Amino acid sequence: MSLEEFNANKSPVKDFYHGKTVLLTGGSGFLGKLFIEKLIKCGVREILLLLRSKKGVSPEERLHALLKKEAVFVNYQQQPELYLDRLKVIEGDISRPGLAISNDDLDYVIKHTNIVLHSAADVRFDESMKESVETNVRGTDHLLNIAEKCANLEVFVYVSSAFSQCIKESVEEKFYTPNIDPLELIKMMENEPRLDELEAVSKKMVEPWPNTYSFTKALAEEVVRRRRDKMPIAIVRPSIVTSTYADPIVGWTDNFYGFNGVVSGAGTGVLRIFHIRDEYKADIIPADIVINGTLVAAHYAAKHPAGENVFNCTMDENHTTWGDIRNDCLSQKGVVAVKKSLWIPTYNTTRYYYVASFLQVFYHLIPAVFFDLVMRCRGEKPQILRLYRKVHRFSDVLRFFTNHQFQFATKRMRQVVDGMEIVDRHLFPCDMKSVVWSKFGVNHIRGCRVYLLGEPWDTNEEALQIYRRRRLIHWCMLGLIYSMYVVVGLRLLEAAGVPDLRSFLGCTQFA
């Protein structure tokens, strides 16, 4: 939808954000970029963007580079002032005490903020306990401290994760009490001098959660819950967030996390075997459904501050399976190709862990050694084996979520969506039932190609020519390998004393 069309419509949700000042964390992340684009369309007065310096680059320089680089900022090239006039950088760091915000910036935030959108998080599943707690738990607590002081605050929104409660097979839209007091854990992390020892027992501390990410997300929800009597709050729990469905552009994404990594790895011929249960529900959700759903839920929570206001933003009402996703991906084989691919896509799945581990030797490790040997012979630095080590770590992280099945209640989210006015449904599309999965699958693959792998669509035919050559070589190699298997098998049978084997085979042809 164009900016002109968006501006031509008035709606309750759009009017709620119009002229407001929004403090946004995680603005340089995947969801944060989408929040910026949508909030600017809504005509917010200002977005206070919490950003830190990174690798010697100032927050302001990072913001300008971000705006120029990302295709999701659809109006920036023609109207840069539309963004620059409404984005104010607040230098800070969500993982630092007090968010490391200067006194002047803090005064400005407290004086002007109407809405807090907290989408920043450490999303690395294998991060240390200390770093996960500092970012996901303490950062949330300190942000709430600031929000309490904002005299004009209308709602505090925390973007959590549906897997914050993944220790339960059925997750309701309500608060759950964790087994550890989050504030006590923060104190422990800050005061424990022997952090190495603490990290050593962190796996036991995290149980039964599968990783520090989901564990600390659960603790952060508890931190938010404890402030319910001091400010209107909303917690939104998306499942595995993927590329956009349509808003503001089709198939946009900017990271290889989760499902994106599986599709990109399979499409480039890198990921060839994956441990997953094809019949299980795929807990994925398009990013624009999450963004619009969060903004709509925040509007609802501001109008209903006494409610529990926990919203599961998942596709349980309109789900697909991992097997269907796999078939949608394979339907694009020979239609979409990638020039940078390692080999042709050959994506296989199994529900059995040991089978997957065994096949990794033949599908991943042996080819990796071969490719690295070729690279050494050409005087290049071998890197394929190192790549596969990352692929296997990535697979290990996802295994818990692709081999367990969860049910997420969405009654409250459905109530909010059904209560939207028609114009809001048009401006903030977030009805999970509207997604056509086969259409999404095709657009997602193309989006990964263009936005993640950096290959413009007009190079697809050239990539297909490379794919066809490699496919021919692939078939020839398979023919050679299987022929060798047959020859070796016949030799072994002859050596075992099977009489007149060729005559026996000839007789069976006329039987």
Automatic annotation (TrEMBL):
Fatty acyl-CoA reductase C-terminal domain segment(s): 363-455
Q: What Pfam families does the entry give?
A: NAD_binding_4 (PF07993), Sterile (PF03015)
| TM regions (residue ranges) | 352-374, 472-493
Catalysis: reaction(s): a long-chain fatty acyl-CoA + 2 NADPH + 2 H(+) = a long-chain primary fatty alcohol + 2 NADP(+) + CoA
Q: Which InterPro entries match?
A: FAR, FAR_C, FAR_NAD-bd, NAD(P)-bd_dom_sf
User: Cellular component per GO?
Assistant: peroxisome
Q: Any idea which GO molecular function terms this record carries?
A: alcohol-forming long-chain fatty acyl-CoA reductase activity; alcohol-forming very long-chain fatty acyl-CoA reductase activity
Thioester reductase (TE) domain sequence ranges: 24-292
Q: Which UniProt keywords apply?
A: Lipid biosynthesis, Lipid metabolism, Membrane, NADP, Oxidoreductase, Transmembrane, Transmembrane helix
Q: Which domain of life is it from?
A: Eukaryota
Q: Name one GO biological process term.
A: long-chain fatty-acyl-CoA metabolic process
| Record EC number | 1.2.1.84
UniProt similarity note: Belongs to the fatty acyl-CoA reductase family.
Cross-referenced PANTHER family: FATTY ACYL-COA REDUCTASE-RELATED, MALE STERILITY PROTEIN 2-RELATED
The record's function comment reads: Catalyzes the reduction of fatty acyl-CoA to fatty alcohols.
Its recorded name reads Fatty acyl-CoA reductase
Q: Which organism is it from?
A: Anopheles melas
